[in-house]
């Protein structure tokens, strides 16, 4: 991902505008409430389950043996939903990241993002990014699980109200450290509590 680049001309190009203009069909007979869960292929189910429970704090809900799912399957939760992440064994190697870029987990406070970064470092997890991205303005720490899946723990994602207005690019504050993200907050994001 290009760092520090805000290509306003490219963001206003006809192709980008055409994509931005896409809207749900008003006649859809259903409404999706939330993104429910992600199922990841992993090489070693136990190793990955240990990472997601011991390092990230997920709880195991159920486990399928090989007789129910070749490679085994572990269902894990971080809230009242039965599972938010499930792991299926049998991956031939590390994730190439070619199909899914990353998966993100929200925390309630900015202080939790900072504590998560410190906790990940203490567990020898390589940090890929920390700070604030551009669109969405969330403050985050990004890292990889044992199979190379790119993960993010974040706080402060912009919310879009009923009027559909989003933060304009002129208010984005991309930062490449958590300290800078705290110091250089965009309008309306309160980082003073850290």
Subunit organisation of the chains = single chain
Mean pLDDT across all amino acids? 93
Number of domains: 2
Helicity, in percent?
A: 10-25%
Based on CA atoms alone, the radius of gyration comes out at: 19 Å
> In terms of per-residue confidence, which ranges show pLDDT below 50 for 5 or more consecutive residues?
none
- Percentage beta strand: 15-25%
CATH class of the largest domain: Alpha Beta
Give me the number of helical elements.
5
Count of distinct strands: 8
The CATH superfamily of the largest domain is 2,3-Dihydroxybiphenyl 1,2-Dioxygenase, domain 1
Offer a quick outline of the entry:
The protein is α/β, with parallel strands linked by helices and 194 residues long. The chain is built from 5 helices and 8 strands, in the order ααβαββββαβββα. It has 2 domains: 37-93, 2,3-Dihydroxybiphenyl 1,2-Dioxygenase, domain 1 (Roll), CATH 3.10.180; 94-194, Roll (2,3-Dihydroxybiphenyl 1,2-Dioxygenase, domain 1), CATH 3.10.180.10.
Write a structural description.
The chain is 21% helix and 22% strand. It has 194 residues and is α/β, with parallel strands linked by helices. The protein has a four-stranded mixed β-sheet, with helices on one face.
Topology:
Elements: H1 8-11, H2 14-20, E1 38-42, H3 45-55, E2 59-64, E3 73-77, E4 85-89, E5 103-106, H4 110-122, E6 127-132, E7 139-144, E8 150-155, H5 178-183
Parallel strand pairs: 1-4, 5-8
Antiparallel strand pairs: 2-3, 3-4, 6-7, 7-8
Which features characterize this protein?
2,3-Dihydroxybiphenyl 1,2-Dioxygenase, domain 1, 2 domains, four-stranded mixed beta sheet, 5 helices
């Amino acid at each position: 991902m290009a760092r520090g680049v805000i290509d306003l001309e490219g963001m206003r190009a006809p192709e980008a505008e055409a994509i931005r203009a896409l809207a749900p069909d008003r006649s859809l007979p259903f409404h999706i409430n939330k993104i429910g869960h992600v199922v990841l292929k992993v090489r070693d189910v136990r190793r990955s389950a240990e990472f997601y429970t011991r390092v990230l704090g997920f709880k195991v809900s159920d486990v399928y043996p090989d007789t129910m799912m070749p490679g085994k399957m572990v269902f894990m939760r971080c809230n009242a939903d039965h599972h938010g992440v499930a792991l299926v064994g049998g991956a031939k190697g590390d994730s190439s990241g070619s199909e899914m870029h990353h998966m993100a987990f929200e925390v309630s406070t900015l202080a939790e993002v900072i504590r998560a970064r410190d906790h990940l470092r203490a567990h020898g997890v390589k940090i890929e990014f920390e700070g604030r991205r551009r669109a969405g303005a969330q403050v985050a720490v990004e890292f990889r699980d044992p199979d190379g899946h790119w993960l993010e723990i974040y706080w402060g994602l912009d919310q879009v109200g009923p009027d559909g207005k989003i933060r304009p690019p002129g208010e984005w504050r991309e930062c490449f450290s958590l300290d800078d993200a705290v110091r250089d907050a965009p309008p309306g994001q309160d980082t003073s509590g850290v």
